[in-house]
Design brief:
about 240 residues; about 25% helix; five-stranded antiparallel beta sheet; alpha+beta; about 35% strand
């Protein structure tokens, strides 16, 4: 009788131990499953937050491009172009929305005055970072330029200007400007190609847009005169 009772309790204990092991395993599996679900939910939430952040950035991304000339005579009004900040004391007459190139300054007839209009067609404020650069065809980039407005609101205008220390040779030059959004994020670069037309007028014929990063600049898109070639510097 005692032996039978001991055997019964031994069997019950074994069953209980097995049951606890099964429950423990199931509980552990459930805990792991819940943890995995929580991690997936956290990852999904993070991805959603990142998507929202990128969407918000896209909604306020500045984008500088060439300012288009006015299409009607009434819109082609004259503007005063000052190069005082670059050492030339005089003021010149230009036409709104058009490229201005003038050989010879007031104090130095050997220089060339250059003014290229740009426009912020993006949705956020563009903050120009550092002096804009100019590269006459076949020459190195020169950095001694300025922007008439360093902070350009949406749909706002500015001009990139230089007093180049020599006469511009050839029929082409490139200019570029770096900028960010109002918080210093979304670093971008816009590069414009400017060429002389048959009637001696200068105009923008190509545009390239870059996204700047720690490892350099990444070309996003190019059009116009740059659409079909691999001009040096477009990388």
């Amino acid at each position: 009788m005692v032996a039978d009772t001991l055997a019964l309790w031994t069997e019950i204990l074994a069953i209980a131990t097995f049951a606890l092991a099964v429950v423990g395993t199931a509980s552990l599996a459930l805990t792991r499953k819940l943890a995995t679900s929580a991690e997936r939910a956290a990852d999904a939430a993070q991805r959603t937050a990142e998507a929202d952040r990128l969407a918000l950035q896209g909604a306020v991304r500045p984008l500088l491009t060439a300012a288009a000339p006015a299409r009607t005579p009434a819109g082609r009004s004259e503007v005063d172009l000052s190069f005082h900040a670059l050492g030339d004391p005089s003021t010149y007459k230009g036409v709104r929305g058009t490229v201005f190139v003038h050989n010879g300054g007031i104090t130095n007839p050997a220089v060339t005055l250059v003014s290229v209009p740009i426009k912020n067609v993006g949705a956020g404020v563009a903050v120009v970072g550092g002096p804009p650069r100019i590269r006459p065809k076949g020459m190195a980039w020169e950095t001694a330029g300025t922007a008439t407005s360093m902070i350009i609101g949406a749909d706002g205008l500015s001009r990139l200007q230089w007093v180049v220390g020599h006469r511009l040779g050839g029929e082409r030059f490139d200019v570029e400007v770096d900028y960010t959004d109002a918080r210093g994020g979304q670093p971008m670069r816009t590069r414009l190609r400017v060429e002389r037309e048959v009637d001696s007028a200068w105009s923008v014929t190509g545009i390239a847009l870059y996204e700047r990063g720690e490892e350099g600049s990444r070309l996003l898109v190019r059009s116009g005169d740059w659409a079909g070639d691999d001009e040096e510097g477009l990388c």
